[in-house]
Each structure stands twice: as C-alpha cells, then as structure tokens.
Amino acid sequence: MAALRRLLHKAWKNDSGAELLELAIALPILMFIIGGVVDFAILFQRYEVVTNAAREGARLGVLSDYTISDVQGRVNSYLLSSGLTDTAPAPVVTYDNAEVSPGGPTISVVSVTVQYPHKFVLLTPLAGLLGKGPHPDLMLTAVSRMRVEVPAAP
Questions:
Q1: Residues 6+ apart with CB under 8 A from 65
Q2: What is the pTM for the complete model shown?
Q3: Which of 48, 67, 127, 148 could form an SS bridge with 108, CB 3.0 to 4.6 Å?
Q4: Tally of CA atoms within 13 A in the half-sphere of 106 that contains its CB
C-alpha cells in the first residue's frame, strides 16, 4: 500500500506535459487574435481601395467631356483592377450645388458614392467554431466630392 501511495504521490507531483496543456489552452486564443488582425488588415485595405475608387470617379466627374456612365465605368474598372471582384452596387454619381459659406457664393460639385460588401475571411469560421452565429457582412462606403471646374472663356 505504501508503494502505491508513493507512486501516486510521484505521479501527482510530476509536471511533465504541463507545457502541452498550456499550449492547448492558449493556442485557440492566440489564433483568434491573429485571425482578427489579418481580417481587419484585409478590411482596411479594401476600404482604402473603395475610397480611392470614389476619388477616381470624382476626378473624372468634374471634367465636362464625361458622363455619369463614364464615371461608373471608371469606378468599376478601378475596383476590378484592385482585386475587388465581388458584385458591388453601381456607384452613385450626383451633381449638386453647394454653398461655400453661409450667405456666400454657391459652387457646383460632383459627388461619387461607392459601396462594396465586405465578408470576414477568418473571423466568421472561427466564430462558428466557438458556437457563435455567422457574422454579418459590412458595407464599406466612401464618398468623394469635388468642385466642378468651369472652363475659362477664350
């Protein structure tokens, strides 16, 4: 009986394999954090592309020789060339008048709104493993406004 007691005491005090247990606890948490960092980096990159696409559309929209369909084509081609191939809603192009200051002169402006749906690549599957439901998609939206330059009279 004493030999069994010594054997159990020795097994109880033995901490071999503790590192493996600690890794099994910490690894899922670490992977979730790394997945979040990667997903938000992808989100930020796509938001920058959407912002630049809106800016490109506004640059084209202020020129007098181009139509709304030309602006929409430029925005769509910018999105495609940047690797955003999911179907995005058509860019909204509006021509408005804006007041420079209260009671001051008004100017003509073009406004281009670009929206693009973003799906989380890593967080949605990881959340599914934890028993959470699917994460909703985000709609990335960027608006660019530029002044319409009136050509100088000859």
A1: none
A2: 0.74
A3: 148
A4: 6
